[in-house]
């Protein structure tokens, strides 16, 4: 059985439209004008148990709305969804004991008390048997290396340490499904990396079904094999990260370190020079011609080192969103790609 | 869940689990509140200041009443001593029924999204807030007990009537119900934050009405008819006036029993109202977009 099944799920909000100016404000009071916002437009998605899926998309694309729907915070306008066989927005306790939602920007711990106390409260809220509670807590604090910090008031912890405590609190009841909304937002590289490693290790061990939204492509690349790109409330791509890169990466980056300084002559004829740092040169070339060009360069110059890479993921995703914006429709990614990995 | 047959073991385990949860909320909240004990200490001291002004004010009023002969002058049945005793007792009632920060706290949680926690986790908002408030009060009483005891001891001469026997039980019951009523009443106001993002002006009106009609400013039986009858029909008097009146022996016998029953009825009413408001509010909240 699939862990998550979403079928034609839609969420529409009505927000009042405020115009500038006093007169408009008065008129707005008398006859309010509303604007309809389609946060999620009829999305369908199936996630199997034990999958680690990333939701990608620009701000306001509908990622968080989808997570809110799946955790029962909001009710949909249309469509259905089940998580572990439960309809989330019925908010049954039997469902609420089986999942967790971690929001990177929301703090759930008691600010003035040590995290250990918040953990105790979670033990009672989720009715975790004492021995299981102690075992899980010690295991998680060990994995994240924060065992010595659980008796220190949360307000005295660093942002990264606090996030680790948040994660522990959310995982104490061993949820079968975990929703992570920007779990590494605002963290430094080291903390980001630790949390990434932890999530990877934890998921591999517990086979938890995880959906993650993140702006850090490193998180996504390190953790998720499957990527769902959401844009303007629609799923515009669902498949592996590697085929997304293949599809989008119309360019390759060639880095050459020349043996005797930068050679004379115009390298621009091979491709677009994006970095000139003698003796190193970076070229952007069309993907299909990459091998051809490397061969041509090597035939003319002596190189110490040559590498051919995909452009950075951030850049690719940015291209994806800007072109999605231009076309405005789902036509961006040709449909065969949807089923590339199935 | 309806297909599960009733099982006394599961049931008692569930009850036990619930009690443990409540105990934990209480314990943790007490720990948290203790962090703010300094703030409490100061707050308690400030509470006694107005009473001194009241004593001077009423002393002047009583002195000005014509036909003054010693301490036996009465204003609408109150002697000077009764008046001071009344104010001291009202202060005590309000230590039970006032809920600083409850309504505004709920609205803030709604506005800033902290309320989501109660949608995701298997725990009720009112349940949590209730035990949090009990903890808040317990910490407050433990700190305020000493100054309260000193003031009451110093002012013992003003108490011309003290309860005995069953009156004590009735007094304690009315105080506990004053706490419950205060909690559910203010929680209901706070939950209106689901509809109005800001309830501070509503809260201000409530505070103002409460100041007059709970008996905080003066004993409500001083009001002329028909105001007295009207005030007796609204629940605010049970927050301050009623417990004090019970202590002073102003309500007795059948009237006392009826008073306690009506107070209990108001508690239940606002309990239900708070629950309904929360339910409808959450429905609106989740429909609107969280």
Helix content of chain B: over 70%
Q: Spans of chain B of 5+ residues with little confidence (pLDDT < 50)?
A: none
The helix-strand sequence of chain B is: HHHHHHHHHHH
Strand content of chain A: 25-35%
Average pLDDT of chain A works out at 85
- What structural class do helix, strand and pairing data of chain B support? mainly alpha
Pfam family, one (chain B): ABC2_membrane_6
Protein name (chain B): ABC transporter permease
Keywords (chain B): Membrane, Transmembrane, Transmembrane helix
Transmembrane segments (chain B): 45-65, 85-106, 141-159, 171-197, 203-220, 227-248, 260-278
Nutshell version of this structure?
Chain A is α/β, with parallel strands linked by helices and 342 residues long.
Description:
The complex is a heterodimer of chains A (342) and B (290). Chain A has helices spanning 22-30, 63-70, 93-96, 115-125, 130-144, 159-171, 189-206, 217-223, 241-248, 290-300, 313-327, and strands at residues 4-16, 34-47, 52-56, 78-83, 99-103, 177-181, 209-213, 226-231, 234-240, 251-258, 272-277, 280-286, 303-309. Chain A has 342 residues and is of the alpha/beta class. In chain A, α7 links the parallel β6 and β7. The two termini of chain A are 16 Å apart. Mean pLDDT of chain A is 85; it is low at 328-342. Chain B is mainly alpha-helical and 290 residues long. Chain B is 72% helix and 0% strand. Chain B starts with 7 loop residues before the first helix and ends with a helix. The model of chain B has no long low-confidence stretch (mean pLDDT 87). Classes of the chains: A alpha/beta (342), B mainly alpha (290). The interface between A and B is medium-sized, with 33 and 26 residues.
Task: Give the SSE map.
The complex is a heterodimer of chains A (about 350) and B (about 290).
Chain A: E1 4-16, H1 22-30, E2 34-47, E3 52-56, H2 63-70, E4 78-83, H3 93-96, E5 99-103, H4 115-125, H5 130-144, H6 159-171, E6 177-181, H7 189-206, E7 209-213, H8 217-223, E8 226-231, E9 234-240, H9 241-248, E10 251-258, E11 272-277, E12 280-286, H10 290-300, E13 303-309, H11 313-327
Parallel strand pairs in A: 3-7, 3-8, 5-6, 6-7
Antiparallel strand pairs in A: 1-2, 1-4, 8-9, 10-12, 10-13, 11-12
Chain B: H1 8-35, H2 37-64, H3 80-97, H4 102-112, H5 116-120, H6 125-154, H7 166-191, H8 200-213, H9 227-233, H10 241-247, H11 253-288
Keywords (chain B): Membrane, Transmembrane, Transmembrane helix
Organism (chain B): Thermogutta terrifontis
Protein name (chain B): ABC transporter permease
